[in-house]
Description:
Elements: E1 2-9, H1 26-40, H2 45-50, E2 57-64, E3 73-80, E4 87-96, E5 99-109, H3 122-131
Antiparallel strand pairs: 1-3, 2-5, 3-4, 4-5
Amino acid sequence: MIVTRAPVTVRYAETDMMGIVYHANYLPWFEVARTQLLREQGFPYRQLEADGYRIPVLEVAAKFIRPAVYDDNLTIIATIREKPLLRIRLDYEVRRGDELLATGHSTHAFCDLHGRPTRPPAAFVARMSELFP
C-alpha cells in the first residue's frame, strides 16, 4: 500500500453561496494528492509527460459526508491499495483534523501521446513490484 498526505487550505473562491466548498473543487484536491504520491515514488507527472506518457482519468467518484468551509486546513489522503497493472486506482479521504469530510476514488490508465493505451514505463513497473511484492 502507498499513502500520501497533501495539505490544502480552502480558498474563498472554492466556496459557494452557502459558504461551503463547492463539490467540484474536491477533484482538483484529489489531483494534488495523486500527483504528490507519484512524485514521492519518483514519477513526477512532468517527467512522465516528457517521456511520452499520459495518465487520463477513466473514472472518478466522491462521497460528501461533512462540509468544508473557507479557511479550513484540510489533509487530502491518497492511497494505492493494490499493485497497479494497466490501471491505477487511488482512494481518497478529505479530512479536517481527525474529522472525515469526504471520500472518493479515481481510476487511470497509461496512454501514449496519441491517447492509445500503453504499458506503464519499465521503471514504474519495477517500483510497483518493490512496493507490492
